[in-house]
Design a protein that fits this description.
alpha+beta, 9-stranded mixed sheet
Length: 290
């Protein structure tokens, strides 16, 4: 049985879809739009492979037990949600095809994981070690010290916010997702559950490229940064506690590049946001995407 939908209003126009029943000689221009309604649902066991695939997209080749992290997300009661097509349940019933185990149904996942508790889980230890090593290697001395203090101080819990979705889903969808998560965290704190965080941690996907300046040939190339989740740029602007690192490969950002363009290099940027700043940041995201 699927989980009941949460009251989230989401609508997306997918401009990357191509209709296959058009005239054979017509060329696809990329302007075709398909309206898709999404809804948030509490994650269930059937969402395991869909959530896991999204996490693998975020962590790539990192030495993490992503399956256990997926189980932790599903196992949390009343915290977080997965994004599904509003009529996905009807389509599944009509097709009577359960071969993909929900893989194609999960378009996104939003949740939070307490990195200061649940240390008996292998993946929590792996995440803590990974963050410590990455901060030591890539962060400034000040940021690295803050990261170490946040990881070592059980009195100031650190929450990892998972904010993952497929790239063609517009950032407007992040507003109800993050707003709902913030409200769920508040309710959990009122019940004295372990969600009273001091910092929230975001791991953001971005790509960088360098383009030669058009003004002067001998001028230093200008670097472009593309965010997979554009709303995370607003979170980035809201904190000075951050560092970034390159990753080996990333198929999350597709597209055809012009010959003069350079290959997009994938990075991850780690953001530490004071927990009491989250409502203000969500309001800024609302204003930006309105």
């Amino acid at each position: 049985m699927s989980a009941p939908p949460k009251k989230l209003e989401m609508e997306s126009e997918d401009s990357s879809s191509c209709e296959s029943d058009g005239d054979e000689g017509m060329e696809y221009t990329g302007n075709e739009k398909v309206e898709i309604d999404f809804e948030g649902r509490s994650p269930i066991d059937a969402d395991f492979f869909g959530i896991k695939q999204l996490l693998q997209q975020l962590f790539l080749k990192a030495h993490l037990n992503v399956g256990e992290l997926t189980e932790l997300i599903i196992g949390q009661n009343n915290i977080g949600c997965v994004v599904k097509q509003s009529d996905a349940e009807e389509l599944t019933a009509e097709d009577d095809d359960e071969s993909d185990d929900g893989l194609m149904e999960v378009f996104g996942v939003t949740s939070v994981i307490n990195l200061s508790s649940k240390r008996e889980h292998e993946v929590i230890g792996q995440l803590r070690t990974l963050l410590s090593e990455l901060a030591s290697e890539h962060a400034s001395t000040e940021v690295a010290s803050t990261v170490k203090a946040a990881l070592d101080d059980p009195g100031k819990p650190l929450g990892l916010i998972i904010n993952e979705r497929y790239v063609n889903i517009p950032c407007q969808i992040s507003v109800p997702l993050l707003d709902s998560l913030s409200k769920e965290i508040t309710k959990a704190k009122e019940k004295s559950l372990p969600y009273d965080f001091s910092y929230y941690l975001f791991i953001c996907k971005l790509h960088k490229t360098e383009k030669p300046s058009k003004k002067k040939k001998n001028k230093q190339p200008t670097e472009e940064t593309l965010w997979s989740n554009p709303e995370e740029e607003i979170i980035d602007q809201s904190t000075d506690l951050k560092f970034e690192f390159p990753v080996e490969s990333d198929s999350g950002l597709g597209g055809s590049w012009m010959e003069e363009d350079k290959t997009m290099a994938p990075f991850r940027r780690v953001l530490f946001l004071p927990a009491d700043s989250l409502p203000t940041v969500i309001d800024r995201i609302k204003e930006a995407v309105a």
